[in-house]
Amino acid sequence: MTNTNFKRIYYEKDIINYPLGKYLIEKYNNIPQIQITSHNNIEELRKYENKDFSTLKNYLVIGTRKTHKYTENHKISDFLVPFTSSGCYAMCMYCYLVCNYNKCSYLRVFVNTEEILNKLINFSNNSDRELIFEIGSNSDLLLENLVTNSLASNIEYFLHNTSKGKLTFPTKFNLINPLLNISDKNRVLPRMSLNPENIISNVEFRTSNLKERIKAINTLVESGYKPYILIAPIIITDNFKEDYFNLISFMKKHLIKKAQEKITFELIFMTYSYIHRKINEEAFPNAITLYSNTLMTSRGIGKYHYKDNIKKESSIFLTNLINNNFKDCTIKYIV
Ligand code: SF4
Fold first, then answer.
1. What is the CA(263)–ligand 1 centre distance, in A?
2. Quick count: other Cβ atoms within 10 Å of Cβ 292?
3. Cβ–ligand 1 contact at 97 (below 6 Å)
4. Is the CB of 88 under 6 A from ligand 1?
5. Per the domain annotation, does 1 fall within a domain?
6. Which domain CATH number covers 209?
7. Calpha distance 197→217 (Å, rounded)
């Protein structure tokens, strides 16, 4: 993925009062542009059907972020922070954003970036301890950056305006160039999400392939970042052990030595839902089936996760595999 190919733009009127809003309207002036009153309620898009999921993903919505609620988190970060976008142009079949936005999980970018950043800077300054902020829980920020070209300047704005706090975000993209010249790489933690190549190509549509992601980790580490890797989401198929064995072998072979030292891993099993099933069945009728009634069980209405015994056995397999190959790594958590 080196570019987006939007077919239509929806925009809130007041975005032209912001430099980024003006830039985007100008940048996409060859694409039909439709004015809306609120990015949260685009009546005509709600009428689309599940089978139109990929058509909707080709639309870009531009607005201002009105809600800025931070959620406490106890994994890599201390708080999940709503940042400069929500939704995504890519189409991973399990994407957690589908739970929040259903078939309308298209990319929305928010142009009131200074307001978003100033709130975060104040929050960080007022804290009595050093906090880590997860800014990528609503979108993939490297992919968003293809549209806004503002990730590096947003990060620098944060770094220059507060001496406290770190930023972190996961990605499935090799679009890391904007990160290479960041002024303080100890305060920025990009985390690369990996999966076996056959899962990437059959499930994570429009994302970077495994080779590209590994190369991106090498480049990030060479430029001064520490290696953070998510194996996520772990998907249990008939070839589960073989697939993940191949993934770890590929990492062992292609990650540079420095990128294999002191890796921080996060291991996240796939969760799935009735909404995902319906959208995927209708939008991607030829794709593989991720739901399994023998391996999964319900958690809450319409939500599925792998059965405890399956998860336990798979966790032991993966933990041993990782520890045997990356001796000084840390597995931060498995969920
Ligand atoms: S790249 Fe991330 S945010 Fe985008 S569709 Fe895939 S899982 Fe969702």
1. 23
2. 16
3. yes
4. yes
5. no
6. 3.80.30.30
7. 16
Ligand 1 close to Cβ of residue 207 (< 6 A) = yes
Span 61-78, average pLDDT: 96
Give the separation between CA 92 and CA 200, rounded to whole angstroms: 9
Domain that holds residue 71: 8-334
Distance 95 CA to ligand 1 centre (A): 6
285 has a pLDDT exceeding 80:
yes
pLDDT at residue number 300: 84
pLDDT at 272 over 80: yes
What b/e sequence results for 182-198 when a residue is b if at least 16 CB atoms lie within 10 Å of its CB, and e otherwise?
A: beebebbbbbbbbbbbb
Assess whether the C-beta atom of 144 lies below 6 angstroms from ligand 1. no
Q: How many residues make up the chain in this entry?
A: 335
Please tell me the total count of domains within the chain: 1
Query: Does any domain span residue 223?
Result: yes
Q: Among 88, 191, 273, name the best residue to mutate to test ligand 1's pocket (greatest count of ligand atoms within 8 A of Cβ).
A: 88
200 in ligand 1 pocket by Cβ < 6 Å?
A: no
187 falls within a domain: yes
Does a structural domain hold residue 3? Answer: no
Cβ–Cβ < 8 Å for 155, 188: yes
Q: Does 100 have pLDDT greater than 90?
A: no
d(CA 200, ligand 1 centre) in Å: 11
